[in-house]
Write a structure and sequence with these properties.
This protein is mainly alpha-helical. The chain has a domain of about 30 residues. It contains 4 helices and no strands. It is elongated.
């Protein structure tokens, strides 16, 4: 059965672990993941069109079409 570590033992292990992390080199995959391109700025209306797929009408054209179809039946 394993015994629990005392608070002093945990403190020593934590500090040695942190010291090891400071001196070691990160993996290449992790380093590459942090070298991303910055987000591109986009205009508000371009973003709305992108999200709503052409939504210059604000979704009104679709609802008007549904209402006219319902009134015909």
């Amino acid at each position: 059965m394993k015994r629990k570590h005392t608070s002093d033992e945990r403190k020593i292990e934590r500090s040695s672990h942190h010291a090891e992390m400071e001196t070691s080199k990160p993996p290449d995959d992790a380093s590459a993941a942090f070298h991303r391109q910055a987000y591109q700025s986009i205009e508000v209306m371009d973003y709305i069109r992108k999200i709503h797929k052409g939504g210059g009408a604000g979704g009104q054209a679709k609802t008007e079409k549904v209402h006219t179809e319902q009134s015909e039946t």
